């Protein structure tokens, strides 16, 4: 009996050792890339990006540019984005509004966040149907939304606990969001435009500023997502990204749950890391890993008071963008930009609630789905498929691909998703007959219109499956149902 106990004891040690070794990721891309991406992320499909910081005080840049880049536009007297710019537009605005001697760093004291109510934010996110959020804990200006000693190594306080708001904004929002079913993520910029060490000694910047700072962020708040950015000026080896990610996956408090993106060094995007990211692009090519498209409701990520109603995408446009992305296996990370007092602009709140209302009816065709054999079906009419060429692609491209085509172009008339129980067909606009080419369901299938719950009839005609839609009666539908109509075909 004693002998058997000894054998069992050593077997337990062996099993524990194997288990531990399986979880021990090495600082190589081969090892780090082998870590599975937590399943919740691939099922989530819809997240909310939040750009918020001292740049929310001036909240102004020319249309077609990022307002969160205010400091860089101001000090470099340059601009890039969608449009033709002289480069000095922000510098001229700043001089007119604040004067010659008002530094960007003075905005820290004006970033009061006095109207910020984290519980109200969290409730809005939950109603939007989003399954995760990503808050900018620190953008390229270096201002942190949490108390951090490295933020002050310029020689003055540059964090929200000591300047302006006098609050731990990351901590407050994390606590509120974690009371809901929404996952909490944090954006973190690796570099800072004008940090003295970044400008003069990048190795010290990495060792003395970046690495201890990002580890402090993870350790204090245990985020579900760590969204890196600002990596493009330096190779991953110089950022020591592989060593950091090995720590993150093996030792950190977030090691079991953390999801990361792919922005960990020059040339790394869409090659290594966690999920792949796109920015103001269309549907992705066939990535081998989960992916996510990020974009704003207008153009800027940070709040830009220069953007008008016409610059914001309609709720139908946003829903169709979501459907387009999900049909190709991606997630949409849709940005909002609160103002400096902590209020989310009303139009942004409205858009989130409109998306949430649509998802409350049609979410079964979105959440937890994967691509079907085809992501979408182009119409037979038209000379060619519409492929926009603009670098930062406005959201309205999806309207050109669906309901408002350019002359001579085809349209995406149907989108497809599926789960283990059903195939889903999502129709951008109402039609009496939905014709799915090269599809044959099982003989016992049932078909349902998710907007009303009505059973639908389908008939096989050659290789096409034709679904007959009911007579359109406006009273049966909510206003948000018109964004897109989802049909469930049970397998």
UniProtKB/TrEMBL annotation:
It is an enzyme of class 3 (hydrolase). SMART domains: Alpha_L_fucos. Gene3D superfamilies: Glycosidases, Golgi alpha-mannosidase II. It comes from the Bacteria. Alpha-L-fucosidase is responsible for hydrolyzing the alpha-1,6-linked fucose joined to the reducing-end N-acetylglucosamine of the carbohydrate moieties of glycoproteins. Belongs to the glycosyl hydrolase 29 family. Residues 18-364 form the Glycoside hydrolase family 29 N-terminal domain. This is alpha-L-fucosidase. Keywords: Glycosidase, Hydrolase, Signal. The keyword Signal applies. Its EC number is 3.2.1.51.
């Amino acid at each position: 009996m004693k002998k058997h106990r000894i054998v069992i004891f050593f077997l337990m040690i062996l099993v524990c050792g194997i288990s531990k070794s399986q979880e021990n990721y090495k600082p190589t891309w081969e090892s780090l890339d082998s870590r599975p991406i937590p399943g919740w992320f691939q099922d989530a499909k819809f997240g909310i990006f939040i750009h918020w910081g001292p740049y929310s005080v001036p909240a102004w840049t020319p249309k077609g540019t990022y307002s969160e880049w205010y400091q860089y536009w101001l000090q470099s007297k340059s601009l890039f984005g969608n449009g033709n710019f002289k480069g000095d537009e922000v510098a001229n605005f700043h001089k007119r509004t604040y004067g010659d001697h008002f530094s960007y760093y003075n905005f820290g004291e004006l970033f009061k966040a006095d109207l910020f109510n984290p519980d109200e934010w969290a409730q809005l996110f939950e109603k939007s149907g989003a399954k995760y959020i990503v808050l900018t804990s620190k953008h390229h200006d270096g201002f942190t939304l949490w108390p951090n000693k490295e933020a002050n190594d310029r020689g003055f306080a540059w964090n929200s606990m000591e300047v302006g708001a006098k609050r731990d904004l990351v901590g407050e929002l994390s606590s509120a969001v974690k009371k809901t079913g929404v996952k909490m993520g944090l954006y973190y910029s690796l570099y800072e435009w004008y940090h003295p060490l970044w400008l003069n000694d990048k190795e010290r910047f990495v060792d003395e500023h970046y690495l201890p700072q990002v580890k402090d962020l993870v350790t204090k708040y245990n985020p579900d997502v760590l969204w890196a950015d600002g990596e493009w000026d330096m190779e991953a080896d110089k950022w020591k990204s592989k060593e950091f990610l090995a720590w993150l996956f093996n030792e950190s408090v977030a090691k079991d749950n953390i999801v990361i993106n792919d922005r960990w060094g020059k040339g790394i995007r869409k090659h290594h890391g966690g999920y792949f990211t796109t920015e103001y692009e269309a549907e992705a090519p066939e990535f081998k890993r989960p992916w996510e498209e990020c974009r704003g409701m207008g153009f800027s990520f940070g709040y830009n008071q220069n953007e008008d109603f016409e610059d914001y995408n309609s709720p139908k446009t946003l829903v169709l963008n979501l459907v387009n992305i999900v049909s190709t296996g991606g997630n949409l990370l849709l940005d909002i930009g609160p103002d400096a007092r902590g209020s989310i602009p009303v139009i942004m709140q409205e858009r989130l609630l409109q998306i949430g209302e649509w998802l409350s009816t049609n979410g079964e065709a979105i959440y937890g789905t994967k691509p079907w054999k085809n992501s979408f079906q182009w119409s037979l009419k038209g000379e060619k498929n519409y492929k926009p060429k603009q670098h930062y692609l406005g959201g309205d491209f999806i309207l050109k691909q669906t309901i408002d085509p350019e002359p001579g172009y085809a349209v995406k008339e149907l989108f497809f998703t599926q789960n283990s129980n059903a195939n889903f067909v999502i129709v951008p606009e109402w039609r009496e007959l939905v014709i799915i080419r090269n599809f044959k369901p099982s003989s016992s299938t049932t078909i349902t219109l998710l907007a009303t719950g009505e059973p639908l009839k389908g008939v096989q005609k050659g290789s096409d499956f034709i679904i007959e839609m009911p007579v359109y009666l406006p009273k049966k539908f909510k206003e948000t149902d018109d964004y897109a109509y989802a049909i469930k075909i049970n397998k």
